[in-house]
């Protein structure tokens, strides 16, 4: 039962990021609400309101049809324009910053809800029009339904004003960087809080049994409790060889087990791991480093030539690296054995280590920014700042020191001005 529940949760997370998810739900709610109003009108709800507030009700069917038809036509035009604005936003973000930003922008719930409000109102007005006869008298007209349709249309106009404001803010690079940083910061903090014991160790897995995933995709989520329950049941420990967030190849070794597993147990383990065809920062903080690095690299390309954006991106990378330094590199999961009551280590997930993460970021930045002395000075400032920050592992500071040395050597070979060389030497100490 828990496996089915986890699959439902994983399926919900996978479709929640689609741009049509919330609009579809709200459009369905608009249709159902229109059916509810048709039923209430048959019970005479408008007739009762007419006796109390006659000024709120339309007088004839032609007027009601004209009002709803005008609202419907305007809303369709408004929705087409809004979708065009979303496509323009996605196109501009992809060309100016990075295609990796698209999943995060598409999953913006504010845009989805606004488009959903438009669709819900359109569906409601369409089916309300079906219930109106032009020759109906005022006491048999669905007056309340017409009034609600007009109110929903006004609500859509207010939502459209907010939509224009929000989409103009969404395309600004500072807001994009801030959104990426916030998601990654929250994810990192959750991981750091889950690391309870710094002295955990895990046996070597060189001689363990190896198994393939049997499917491909980005390693998105894993049901830790279910995996621990399976390990406890068969009395084994397992090692997930691919870090979360990376792409898993169908025929690559994905699972190592201390004891041999039959096909049923292996399938049960794989069933508790979800794979996807896309990446989200909420599930993988490493993606935030990739996205921010790509924004900086794209900003320094000859076609864009925007060093100010690169400097902003390096500022956010500095803050993220400072948080990442508080996280361990082990990836060991510990749980309490339900039989003995003792805490035992059942499995380990491979992680992208601090050294690998730092190298991947700095390698790209060094390659594309080495000729700009201002950016090189900013990178040196970042590394010097990180060297002074507390770290979960002592060797993190040594990694940073090596990166300073590599950056300094590469920059000295790229600069032609002795003044620029002296400036970076001063920052490097």
Automatic annotation (TrEMBL):
Signal sequence, renumbered to the chain: none
Keywords tagged on the record: Membrane, Transmembrane, Transmembrane helix
Database matches in InterPro entries: DUF2254_membrane (IPR018723)
One Pfam family per UniProt: DUF2254
Membrane-spanning segments: 20-40, 64-90, 111-132, 144-164
Name of this chain's protein: DUF2254 domain-containing protein
